[in-house]
Amino acid sequence: MAACVSSSMVTLTGGVSIPSPNSLKTKGLGFSSPFLNSFNPIPLNFCVLNNPSAASSRSKISRRLFRVQSTVLKENEEKVVVEESFDPKSFREKEGEGTFGEPPVGGDDSPSSGFEQRIIKFEQSINMLLTDSVVKILDTFYHDRNYARFFVLETVARVPYFAFMSVLHMYETFGWWRRADYLKVHFAESWNEMHHLLIMEELGGNAWWVDRFLAQHIATFYYFMTVFMYALSPRMAYHFSECVESHAFETYDKFIKDEGDELKKLPAPTVAVKYYTSGDMYLFDEFQTSRPPNSRRPKIKNLYDVFLNIRDDEAEHCKTMKACQTHGNLRSPHSYAAEALEDDDSGCVLPQADCEGIVDCIKKSVADPPANKK
């Protein structure tokens, strides 16, 4: 991975290629001009400054600075500290539409598009069945033990991101794949879920041995299932994670509405205060791909604020998982400056391999081995 250094920062550009806006077929998230006018863009690195053709694109950066490729969810619930809530049911795909609620690529009469839509519907049906089954189990065991339920939920919620990174590292080992943004965002997501877990442990959610046993064994099974699912169909694996995160959002949202008055009387756990209000916030910004960095800075005064922010974290995970269901759509919120390097041939950007699922990776490696690539 190549490193391009400026006077004030280090920008890692190895293996990351940003698709041209004209080639994107999915909805992007734009930000209003008042925000862009008030934002001072970071300095371009020396790779851009030393290349006239790349430097000429500097004037275009402000217009495209935060075109993070993610879908925007409907926001129609109660007011919260950070932003309005949203309806998790807005994730459900409409029949006859594409992955992001758009007409299928190729038109309604395309045989391949119709076949793909049937596959998508089949994948999502399996995911919803699996999610509903797990929810019923949790409802049976934890209908009156909220913190223990949250501990199990957060132990399991971290697993998909480990699984995604495991498969992507395997693809990198074989030279099939290299997209740094995916690894960065998935690690940031696992880091966020880990702090949710630490909060639940501080609240006593792991006090019973049976809860720890159940959570650990479900997580182990879930890891291998997700690895297999992700290798077979990344789209299906991302949708399953979206279903899990959507359930987490609904669970926390109901808990806040039912117990809000009592939660406001209780102090916030120390780990929550440290995570949300102090230290390096890079990883906190990294997993929220639908918003620009530094745009969300929580205030933690009591336990109510803690659960409010955990709920909003789950909403951000849902948005990211939905964006991931279109291959190549995920982009790190910190990678906007890399757009200036699209046409840069100075040698700072390494060529990258890319494939979707193990079948596609093997097929592409046979058709065009890495040794033959220039």
UniProtKB/TrEMBL annotation:
Question: Which PANTHER family does the protein's record reference?
Answer: ALTERNATIVE OXIDASE, UBIQUINOL OXIDASE 4, CHLOROPLASTIC_CHROMOPLASTIC
Q: What class of enzyme is it?
A: oxidoreductase
Q: Which InterPro entries match?
A: AOX, AOX_sf
Any one cellular-component term (Gene Ontology):
respiratory chain complex
Q: Which UniProt keywords apply?
A: Electron transport, Iron, Membrane, Metal-binding, Oxidoreductase, Respiratory chain, Transmembrane, Transmembrane helix, Transport
**Which cofactors must be present for this protein to function?**
Fe cation
Family membership noted in the UniProt record:
Belongs to the alternative oxidase family.
Q: Where in the cell is it found?
A: Membrane
Output this protein's name: Ubiquinol oxidase
